[in-house]
Input
Amino acid sequence: MKPRILVSREVFDETLAMLGEHFEVESNQADIRHSTDALAALLADKDGAVISTSDRIDASVLDRAPRLRVVANVGVGYNNIDVPACTAAGVMATNTPGVLTDSVADLTFGLVIATCRRLTEAEHYLRSGEWKGSFLKQMLGKDVHGATLGIVGMGRIGQTVAKRAIGFEMQVLYHNRTRLDAATEAECRAAYRAKDDLLREADIVVLLMPYTPETHHLIGARELALMKPSAVLVNVARGGIVDDAALVTALRNGTIWAAGLDVYENEPRLNPDLLTLKNVVLSPHIASASEPTRKAMANTAARNCIAALTTGSPPNLLNPDVKDRVRS
Output
């Protein structure tokens, strides 16, 4: 009898076909978002799961899924998974690093340009019929070329953003938990700064680190006050890294000039005050949402699930300490 797996949210037909060669698959092509209790009930008789970042996997779910051996996240971020709880329960956890790097870097620069050049505000101005002709001081924005870009979080995506910045002749500063080696700094043409110094110096600050308890509200009222009044903040990392209420206040008061956001605290809900501001560009967590990239993410998660349940060694294992205790 084939192992049974759950695919918790809608995926591509080719992903289901790949999984169907190895498993009995229960899918959710209707793309219903499950509550924690509903998810636990669906996992009660499953050996594995391909899950979305909207699915919370914690001890309460794992306790009700006695056969579960792997949860394969469709996403590089995994703050939806309690990895220590998975290890304690003997469940492998995986993610999809690497495949979304370029697409996220592209969207990052899209948000930088849209925010600096007030593109969404300009479109609303045109669509509402307010545009009556061009004049010298119309929709004045900030230049991206030649600006100082500060990147907080210099992993794969941060380094790719830094390389994109070379074409814009930007000065690149970065802050990272661990400083890069000299060769990588030279390749990215990036100079290391302490976080507070980066915030003071940068014209555009981009956030690209994982969400952890240590990075919760990494950017709050104190940090925003360090930035230039002309500065732009762009968050394509995770909601919760920025204190959204403090950001609203900073945008209203002119503490910083503008912000571009793809992620939010408590998403898909967001602070309603953000919707009242003209100096913020908002997108609905779509940094990786190109068709080739999303297919690569889903198929990578499927391959992780297949490897976990056939060989016990998935390529993107988040909890290697689990190998000696995986459920049989």
User: Anything to note?
Assistant: The first strand starts at residue 4 and ends at 7. The chain has two domains: 4-98+291-324, 101-282. The CA atoms of residues 241 and 311 lie 37 Å apart. The mean pLDDT is 96.
